[in-house]
Amino acid sequence: MRLIGMLDSPYVRRVAVSLKLLDIPFTQEEVSVFRHFEHFSSINPVVKAPTLVTDDGTVLMDSTLILQHIEKQSGKSLMPDETVAHARALRRIGLALAACEKSVSIFYERNLRPEEKQHQPWVDRVSSQLLLAYGALEQEIPSDWFTVGAPMQAEITTAVAWRFTQHVIADVVPKADFPKLAALSERAEALPAFRQTDYD
After folding, report:
1. Which CATH architecture has domain 83-195?
2. pLDDT score recorded for residue 112
3. Which of 121, 100, 88 lies closest to 164, judged by CA?
4. Which residues of 101-138 are buried (b: 16+ CB within 10 A; e: fewer)?
């Protein structure tokens, strides 16, 4: 399998970390949707990261759909079996993905849109949504994540999201205001699957 995309994308990284934790072999190709648009479009005309090219040549996109395929194909899962625990994990993944989405929106607004065209009320609303997502995660995540058992998808996605936000817009989400998430991130980034997919 080929995973296409830059590891500084939280969506690409959550797939890469998951593949490593599931011990599924893959090659990771650092192709940027911005700098390598033509090359990326030759692999996936939609130019969406992450893109996964399966062994039979099927081109998949969207990190959640890619992870569904990987788990279906491998028979391994990073999700709990029990219904209530599964729903709780999906909620936390949803919060983390919302935080990713809002972080990307703010980053793009700051870096791709001319300053005179930036709309502060919209930035304020997105920032509020971002802080609410992380506020909910800070309250809900267990303190033993990344200390007991193998990491599951809710842990992976939360840690990847937090690292990305701190990398691109740390001023919007002060680390000191979210001590549980900051501690979780430190534990996660010490693991081999995270170290091997770091982007600094």
Report:
1. Up-down Bundle (1.20)
2. 85
3. 100
4. bbbbbbbebeeeeeeeeeeeeebeebbeebbebbebbb
Give mean pLDDT, residues 63-92. 97
Q: 1 with 24: CB under 8 angstroms?
A: yes
How many whole angstroms separate alpha carbon 61 and alpha carbon 134?
26
Phi and psi at 101, nearest 5°, equal: -60, -45
Do the beta carbons of residue 27 and residue 1 sit within 8 Å? yes
Evaluate whether 181 touches 158 at the Cβ level (below 8 Å).
yes
Residue 38 burial (CB count, 10 A)? 7
Class of CATH domain 2-74: alpha beta
- Checking 57-64 for CB contacts under 8 A at 24+ apart, the result is 62/11, 63/11, 63/12, 63/14, 63/15, 64/97
**Spatial distance between the Cα atoms of 78 and 81, rounded to a whole number of angstroms:** 9
Query: In angstroms, what CA-CA distances link 11 with 77, 122, 144?
Result: 18, 23, 24
Please list, in sequence order, all residues whose beta carbon lies within 8 angstroms of the beta carbon of residue 90, skipping any fewer than 6 positions away.
154
**pLDDT of 50 above 90:** yes
156 in Cβ contact with 17 (< 8 Å) = yes
Domain ranges of the chain: 2-74, 83-195
Place of tokens 């090219």: 53
**What pLDDT, in 10s, does the model give residues 118-144?**
888 999 999 999 999 999 999 999 989
